[in-house]
Amino acid sequence: MDLKRVNAIAKKEFIQIIRDYRSLGLAIFNPVILLCMFGFALSLDVNNVLLAIWNQDKSQASINFIQGFKDSPYFKIVAYLDNYSQLENYINTKKAMMGMVIPKDFARHIQSSQTAPVQLLVDGSDANTATIAIGYVNAVVAGYNENLINESILKSGIKKLSPIDLRARVWFNEDLKSKNYIVPGIIAMIIMMIAAQLASITVAREWERGTMEQLISTPIRREELILGKFIPYFLIGFFDILIAVAMAQFIFLVPLRGSLILILISSAIFLMGALAQGIYFSVVAKNQRLATQMAVLTTFLPTFILSGFVFPIYNMPKIIQLITYVVPARYFIAILRGIYLKGEGLGILWREALYLSLFTFMMMGLAYRRFQKKVA
Question: Would the pLDDT of 374 be above 70?
């Protein structure tokens, strides 16, 4: 391999990138924009559940019950209503996600040690959010019931008993913030999508502009041509990785408990695989638009849906779980989350690193074999 010829192709590609401001903008500004959009907008946390209440009882017992929802950081009481029509209107117009009806005899049931019914109406349009919000309601109700039981025991003169003393401790993501879980996945998705799209136009652009015939007529070998086109986009992609890691650390405040060097090394391996995949599409399609569409279809959707980025893989059907094994972002996201949140090293993440390396070597091999230094 003649490094001078590789250097010449790399310089040529850099000049084309600088002249093509759209590709340059895609390479530098898109990752920042996407990271900001997904990092700030995409959240699995359920806070400020809008709650409308119709308190028919208006007793001290019902007020104490409502106080539990006021004190909870997960609920925001938006209105106190007087009938079902108002309650239904609030839920239908999205002014409230939940409607609670406390019956007239609520206090009487409590004072007579009977079960007091409370009706909860929930907007189930977003099933996941509704399920989490119902869990919050159950927690508030359980706390209210526990206080009632303790008061009853103390009034009867019986010593308060605590048969179960549960002390929960959350490991790795103590604050239970979804951004700590999501941002590493966003980094993987951005690298996969941007790198594949950028590389997908390299060879196809030469065919469309008619310059590929000139390159074929030169003494340059195909591995030198591929490497020369590979180097500029690798440097740009690695620069994007540095930006993404810095934003995760200083803007989104995602805790980094593991090795930064390991993150950069694994990111470089993943980046090489994504670029090789883009070059492969560029060689196959010989058309920039078709190559870009192939890159988007095979990178964005699988990474977003089948990598465990948002949707847990273990909740998917068995057939879909088997398909996820061929999605490289699955392994890279596992590596990033393991390093960021758990401080894991290669002793634990070696399998994911191995699969990631196999993907990179496979895509490089496919791109090399597919590219032939001839017109047809």
Answer: no
